[in-house]
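Worked example

This section walks through a single chain of length 83. The input is the sequence exactly as stored; nothing has been trimmed or padded.
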Amino acid sequence: MRSELPFDPENPPDEPPPGVRQPMAWRLAVRLHRDHSPLPAGPTPEMSGPGSPDVCRTCGDPWPCHGRRIAVRGLLAACRGPR
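Given that input, the structure is written out below as tokens.
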């Protein structure tokens, strides 16, 4: 069963959707999310990164990288608000 999120986890909007309780945290998480995206596959294996599209374009770590996972957690936390 998929939970209902106020955003598409693969392509969150730059501006926080209605109901986001921490807009600044949202904006920071979206920037991290955009920075840590998979490397696109090149027309030939030599043109893509180490290991092809299964690596992050920013840090080169295996996909999904630590930066992307932190970004997703940040987006979810921004929706929940402070504890």
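What to look for: The CA atoms of residues 22 and 31 lie 15 Å apart.
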